[in-house]
Amino acid sequence: AQSVAQPEDQVNVAEGNPLTVKCTYSVSGNPYLFWYVQYPNRGLQFLLKYITGDNLVKGSYGFEAEFNKSQTSFHLKKPSALVSDSALYFCAVRGTTDSWGKLQFGAGTQVVVTP
Amino acid sequence: GAVVSQHPSWVICKSGTSVKIECRSLDFQATTMFWYRQFPKQSLMLMATSNEGSKATYEQGVEKDKFLINHASLTLSTLTVTSAHPEDSSFYICSASVGDNQPQHFGDGTRLSIL
Q: How far apart are CA B38 and CA B114, in angstroms?
């Protein structure tokens, strides 16, 4: 069975400071890993994915994530946060043995960036 | 690219009414679409996986007779909440994927309120 853990319900950061949102996972087979962002009353927007290759993945809006196989982690990072980055962030995982591309989502982390 | 349109965005109706929600992939063909339900400040709960031309696969605990899913074409899936009651009030989100290891692309969701 696959699972995703986002240990922080909320992350607070001042604008201009680095932002990190944590994610750890458990899957059968090799993982496909994704980060999404959700603004109020909206669907999810895709930020980035790790399928294979370089452990450091760069995505939309200046976000990046590092895949760490030994620690089964895929933390989302941004060097300098903006107030507009305030939103709900979801980590999602799919194992290569899972059919139809079904994703398991983490509980979500609310990011609050203060001016 | 990879735009998913969901309609309507907001529905308010009386108890006992059936409500249909449409999910369209606008610029790609989606053999598989997914329907999720999201409660306030919670993660996405997968309701069912919809495959074009075949019956949907429902997750455990989701009533297939209550939540009717039809995936009649490669660009359209519909979710009908039959005889809706206040406990069915929620945020419903659809997604579609262009391929096996590709990200799911999400609609903007439908806020359903049953009075």
A: 15
Torsion of CA A66, A79, A13, B38, to 10 degrees: -50
Residues of A in contact with B41 (CB under 8 A): 108, 110
**Residue B5 near residue B24 (C-beta atoms within 8 A):** yes
| Residue A103 pLDDT level (bands cut at 50, 70, 90) | confident
* Contact: B43, A44; criterion CB under 8 Å: no
- Close Cβ partners of A99 (under 8 Å, ≥ 6 residues apart): none
B104: nearest CB among A103, A107, A108 = A103
Could you report the per-residue pLDDT of B40-63, keeping only the tens digit for each?
878 899 999 988 888 899 999 999
First-residue to last-residue Cα distance in chain B: 37
pLDDT of residue B97 exceeding 90: no
Three-state secondary structure of chain B: CCCEEEECCEEEECCCCCEEEEEEECCCCCCEEEEEEECCCCCEEEEEEEECCCCCEECCCCCCCCEEEEEEECCEEEEEECCCCHHHCEEEEEEEECCCCCCEEECCCEEEEEC
- The residue assigned the tokens 């039959």 is B82
CA distances from residue B41 to A9, B36, B38, B111 in whole angstroms, order as listed: 10, 14, 8, 14
